[in-house]
Amino acid sequence: METEKGFIEQEPASRRRRLWRWIAYACGTLLAVALVLGLALHFTLSRRSQAPPVTTSKSPGSVVDTWVGGPVVATNFADPAMIEVDGIYYAFATNKYVNSHPGQVNIQIAVSTDFSTWNLTGLDALPHVGNWSTGTYVWAPDVVRLDDGTFVMYYSARHAVKLKHHCVGVATSKNITGPYIPQAQPVVCPLSAGGAIDPDGFQDADGTRYLIYKVDGNSLNNITGTHNPTPLMLQQVSNDDGFTLIGGPTQLLDRTKADGPLVEAPSLMRSTSGSSPVYVLFFSSNVFTTFHYDVSYATSTTGIKGPYTRSAQPLLRTGDDSGRLFGPGGLDVGHGGQKVVFHSGYDGGSIVRQLWTGEIAVVNTTVYI
Question: Global pTM?
Fold first, then answer.
């Protein structure tokens, strides 16, 4: 009876211990699962971001919806350029850090199959820069595809001798993601005027290819003590290789007092929405670290060489998209003249220029987004 009595008295306590052990095990399992899911979500968001259109409107006189969405890449992805190849969108950008940095990727790449969700590839499209450069401060790439399938990348980098200035280089690849092999010499290098940055490739309706770039006159400002010209130049290039210069450059636009120290980041498109073709030149003005930085545009109805007439208001500026944009700039328009990419930073102690996307509509000489 003692044994039976002891068993009967101890059984409830034993059950309680088993119950508490089971509860502890279940709680531990749930915490582990939550931790794994949290880490997976953090990793996913750090590698990609999905941004459906957050601001959508119907442009007057057009059936095209215009929208702005982002950020679709939340890390530094400045001065973006975009190209569509076989139904896939590729975006290229300035190196991740504003200054030279150990392990720097010269040219970043992001990829999207739907223009909404973007993934950083981690690849360096341009692992080696032309010998004319220090190989640092590699900025503002653009990529075009030649008729033979070759991809041509234009980029700017610091000059090896004139360290305060950049020049425009060129590199080629048979693969859209590279690696791109640089030419030994820069394609545009007006050092006496301050150098050149922000190249943009454009092919006109008749097949003629051009390179548009900024003369980086503001790199001389600390030397001269004045605001120097920063003209946006149009240069015809060979249809065969995309970079051999044909003739001399034509100035399309230059800074005014309202632009602050500069205009930069040109991107050119041709619209046929009206009764006659209109060339639209997008550009940014002021300084990218300030809220004055913006995306503006000018139009020409008399041919690619202008003259270009500025729009009355910027296309994008700080405070747009319900206050979400800060210093938007570097807009690049894709082939077909509807999809665009640009960067927008935020003022959080440092500027992180994130990748944003959108679609525009051109009605006569007015651009809507």
Answer: 0.83
